[in-house]
Amino acid sequence: MGPECNSLTDIEIHYKNYFDLYMGDNAFTMTLGEDGLFVKMLRAAAQLCCSTANLHFILIRDDQTDVKEIEELVLDNVKTNRENSNDGVVRFYYPEFAPKKLLHVYDTQTPFLRLSRSPGPALVMRKPKKKQPVFVGEIVVKSWAITLFLISIAWVIGILAWFSDRKVNPKDFPDPFYVGMIEGFWWSIVTMTTVGYGDKTPKGPVTRILAVIWILISTIFISLFTANASSILAISQAEEDHTNLIGKKIGCLNSRHFFDVELNLGAQWIGFGDTFSFVVASQTGEINRLVFPNYLDFLFLRTKPEFKSFNDEYSLTNTLDHPFQIGMALAVDPANMTTMEESFLRCLRNELPTLEKQIRRTDFGMTNVKGDSKVEEIKVPLDSDSLLTLTYWFFAIIACFISFGLCWDYWVYKKKSQAHDQHRDQPGDVDMAIESNAYMNGGGTQSLSHNSSTNREHEAFHKA
């Protein structure tokens, strides 16, 4: 750097935790992560700009009752050390943020040292649970109110139809009341569902007018029931718009003072002082999103073995087009900067960009990082597995019915055969045999009578 370096004895980096990937305490060891990108950059830059100075990393421990922002800490330090500005110590405060290409921060034009550029922050959230297909029974359960309403009104219409048509049409709507009520309810249900069997038809003019009104009204009611079932299926499979941030709670790590001013997202920013509480808050639902300074660095973090669970549980939702700088503020009065401070700051600004590229290229290996790929899955609104299970059960019931029916037919056939053997020598045995054969061949009563009379005529003819 030059002869000015001789007066520089110590370089102090006062830091708050801001992702140990950059510079911060490791979440497990609670010590400064030496593998952090900015830690490596600053150690290398300090050797290049002033190898004789001692580099110190000092954690800023916030008082829980009075948490100060970086700006407050910098201005307090400037006021405190204004009389000892030539003590040979350079003090930086991290993390500080600045819009694109700015070299000064705050109203006091405090010098800003850029460590990295970001194209814009990335918002991360816990992966939502996959929505399960709807079981048919769930539609019935959720539609119980409208189902009960349809049954009740159909019952009332059925009673009115019986009452108005029982005199002119006693065949379809007979007395007494409990029989006619059931018949009327059956007609009302068949009409409402537009099945129209035709087994019962109103004959009286009043009942026919009632039927016309009921057909028109019930069409609307059935449409409401169908719409309700469709809504249940649609809502159960509807995907939430995770890009919408209105009203969301976004957690940020020691950077609220910047994002709260720079980003107008309609969301509430909640600041955290360490990575552990930052992540735990998202797991407990205290916050809806996590803000990460750079999308590519987030992808790199997911490739680290110690963050495997983070990779499985979290996914990217938004990337914001808002470039900004991550860096440090130099605690110095801009109007009273010494030649040593100006030369050292200028050297760091020249060396750090090159060091960042070198370290990212060798340690981060960003070219091998793969991002999220969304594959659209075919979604079935109904639970196919449950439907198949029910189908298998119904096929089993059908098989049982067929087996029972065949056994019943065989039993009837054996019974007829035994009766034929017992009455073989008695009159009418021919008729019994014919009747048995006719039953097994599917013949009706008329064919049996016809066959019996024909056989008697043949016997009489032969005797004559």
Task: Kindly describe this structure.
With 464 residues, this protein is α/β, with parallel strands linked by helices. The chain has four domains: 3-117 and 324-368, Periplasmic binding protein-like II (D-Maltodextrin-Binding Protein, domain 2, 3-Layer(aba) Sandwich); 136-237, Helix Hairpins; 249-315, no CATH class; 404-463. Helices cover 49% and strands 14% of the residues. It has a six-stranded mixed β-sheet, sandwiched between helices. A five-stranded mixed β-sheet has the order 8-7-9-6-10, sandwiched between helices. α1 links the parallel β1 and β2 (54-59). The protein is elongated. The N and C termini lie far apart (146 Å). 26% of the residues are buried. The model is unreliable at 373-378 and 442-452 (pLDDT under 50).
